[in-house]
Amino acid sequence: MNSVTIPFLDLKAAYVELKGEIDAAVARVLDSGWYILGTEVEAFEQEFAGYCAAGHCVGLANGLDALHLGLRALDIGAGDEVIVPSNTYIASWLAISQCGATPVPVEPDPQTYNIDPARIEAAITHRTRAIMPVHLYGQPADLDAIVAIARRHGLRVIEDAAQAHGARYRGQRIGAHGDLVAWSFYPGKNLGAFGDAGAVTTNDAALAARVRVLRNYGSRVKYINDEAGWNSRLDPLQAAALRVKLMHLDDWNARRRTLANAYAQQLAGLDLQLPQVPDWAEPAWHLYVVQATDRESLQKRLAEHGIGSLIHYPIPPHRQQAYAAAGIAAGTLPIAEAMADRVLSLPLGPHLPTAAIAQIAAALRS
Ligand SMILES: *Cc1c(COP(=O)(O)O)cnc(C)c1O
């Protein structure tokens, strides 16, 4: 029984549902004869800023660049420290390292999977410049608590919102709580392009202007370079496709929420830790992540029933070879390490039929 009957995520189904609109949007860009930045990118930037209730959006090449150029715009560099969750995707850490700064891990609340504000102040030193909360798996971090700590210590807040398009914190969409918010539109995200894409949103006009310069070779005026920048421009083909998909984001997030509610009902009573949602959080349900002590056998059982599952993430950043030089010993960050051993992401996406949840629950029970 090897043929997959319930895929972890069906990316093509999203294209099929919107094929007419997407094809027309892509053809519009090809017919325009304009293939770098331009009106299509500007239109997406305005529409996404509006969606997030943020003053500004700057379209970029990917989510890692959004974090990296966001940190650069905040003037974070060598000798600086940035507080980051111990249990995030490695991109959050890499963006900090790319600036020459040091990622300083803080452990999550094991119930919500997000950075635990009660642990942040102990990690602040005279070198700390910013806090980078990650809205992991689509659930917003406790932004009021984090912003209050940052204000008290004169720190910046740059949010990693790569997994949380459309999530709400205390009823308000995320996208402008911190100084800068970084987004990825990697195909598998809630708002996904047909290739790499990313953006930052902010209410700070000067920060937005700085990222705009950094993404385009440090240039405001063609062939006049004010600083040593990068090439990280949002592709107009991706912008055109994202404009179509943005119109369906709330609808698709609602479908994800229905599936998450079905999981909560159908998995109750199993020996699994289900995601806990604080009453102030409306997650975007990017992933449905359970924790289990016998994860390997559960994953095997799902596979035997043709059900896809993934692990986000099997190795925390501090235990990756990439961070060997940081010398953070095993056992130093026990919550992140326990999560890496226990987490399991179940199938979830706007095109997964609700009936599949009962099938998945039955397989887990078998
Ligand atoms: C996807 C992701 C990123 C990086 O986005 P890319 O577009 O792949 O560069 C950063 N942080 C988190 C939490 C992510 O899930």
What's this model, at a glance?
Keywords: Pyridoxal phosphate. The protein has helices at 11-32, 39-52, 63-73, 90-98, 143-153, 205-214, 236-246, 249-266, 295-304, 334-342, 355-365; strands spanning 56-60, 81-85, 102-106, 128-131, 156-160, 168-169, 172-173, 180-184, 198-202, 219-221, 224-225, 281-282, 288-291, 343-346. With 366 residues, it is of the alpha/beta class.
Structure report:
The chain has 366 residues and is α/β, with parallel strands linked by helices. The chain folds into 2 domains: 12-246, Aspartate Aminotransferase, domain 2; 249-365, Aspartate Aminotransferase, domain 1, CATH 3.90.1150. The chain is built from 11 helices and 14 strands. The strands form 4 sheets. A 7-stranded mixed beta sheet has the order 1-9-8-5-4-2-3, sandwiched between helices. Helix 4 (90-98) links the parallel strand 2 and strand 3 (102-106). It is globular. The model has no long low-confidence stretch (mean pLDDT 97). Bound molecules: pyridoxal-5'-phosphate.
In round numbers, the mean pLDDT is: 97
Low-confidence stretches: none
Q: Which CATH first-tier class of the largest domain would you pick?
A: Alpha Beta
Biggest β-sheet: count, sense, barrel? 7 strands, mixed
SSE order: HHEHEHEEHEEEEEHEEHHEEHHEH
Q: CATH-wise, what's the superfamily of the largest domain? A: Type I PLP-dependent aspartate aminotransferase-like (Major domain)
What form results from the Cα inertia axes? globular
Q: How large is the count of helical segments?
A: 11
% residues in beta strands: 5-15%
CATH architecture annotation name of the largest domain: 3-Layer(aba) Sandwich
How far from one another are the termini? 16 Å
Question: Number of domains in the coordinates?
Answer: 2
Per the CATH scheme, the topology name of the largest domain is Aspartate Aminotransferase, domain 2
Number of strands: 14
**Rg, Å, rounded:** 20 Å
List the ligand species.
pyridoxal-5'-phosphate
Q: Could you estimate the helical fraction of the residues in percent?
A: 25-40%
Cross-sheet strand order for the largest sheet: 1-9-8-5-4-2-3
Helix-strand category: alpha/beta
